[in-house]
Each structure stands twice: as C-alpha cells, then as structure tokens.
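[Discussion] Sanity-checking designs against the backbone

I'm trying to build intuition for which residues belong where. Below is a structure token string of 143 positions. I'd appreciate it if someone posts a full sequence so I can compare it with mine line by line.
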C-alpha cells in the first residue's frame, strides 16, 4: 500500500524525532543506521525538505533535522509528501477504472479500511511513534 520510499521516509522521520537536541544528522549516518541505500534515502529526505518537514544543512557538520516539533508533524503530512494523494485514491488491487460505478471485488471492504487508515494518519503525530522504539517485537533500527 505505501511505497518503499514512503516506508523508509516514515522510518527516517521517526528516527530523527527520537534524537535528542536540535542537531543536524548526516544522511549517511541515518541510512547506515536504518540499513537503507544512501542515494535512495537522500532523494526521499530531499522531498521532505521541499515540503518543509525537514531542514538541511550542507557542509562537514551538515545533515538534516526536523523543521518543527514532532508533535506538529502528522503522519499524513509525511505520506502525502512522499506518495501523494494517489495512495488514498487508487484501487487496492491496482485495477484501472475501479470506483463506485465499476467497483473491483475489494472496493467496498477497502473503502472502510482506507477510511480508518486515513483517520489514523491524520490524527497521529510523529511524536506518538517516536516514543516507541520497539513495536510488537519489531525494532525500528536493525540490531
């Protein structure tokens, strides 16, 4: 449902929100910690800089940091910045033309799930997930 880019972007944003202080973290360090390709993560984070969720600084002490408090960044903002509205509008089976007039077999069930998912993304801030480093036995960062 969410692209790999969006998944990595969410992980990186949670990781940044977990960092103490107001410091810039090098993208290479973030990519290494999260075990994500540096060039791929750099492109994702650049999208978040463009959307004013991250601030970047060039140079030896450069990197990225959150542009505002993690309590002010909703998960929905991150998903829209990376995947766009299409993630909420497209058919879960990827069928062209799926809609109310020509629904796919999963259209109705997916509509309810999508609504709940959208509500969760809209109501949840980055801070809520940054407080949890381990969820359901899974760690955000590799061990």
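Best answer:
Here's mine. Compare freely.
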């Amino acid at each position: 449902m969410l692209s790999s880019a969006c998944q990595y972007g969410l992980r990186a944003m949670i990781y940044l929100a977990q960092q103490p202080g107001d410091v810039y973290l090098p993208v290479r360090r973030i990519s290494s910690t999260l075990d994500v390709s540096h060039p791929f993560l750099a492109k994702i984070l650049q999208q978040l800089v463009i959307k004013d969720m991250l601030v970047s600084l060039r140079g030896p002490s450069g990197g990225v940091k959150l542009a505002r408090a993690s309590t002010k960044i909703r998960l929905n903002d991150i998903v829209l910045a990376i995947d766009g509205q299409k993630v909420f509008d497209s058919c879960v089976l990827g069928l062209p033309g799926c809609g109310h007039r020509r629904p796919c077999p999963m259209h109705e069930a997916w509509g309810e799930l999508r609504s709940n998912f959208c509500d969760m993304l809209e109501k949840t801030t980055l801070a809520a997930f940054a407080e949890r480093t381990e969820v359901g036995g899974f760690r955000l960062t590799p061990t």
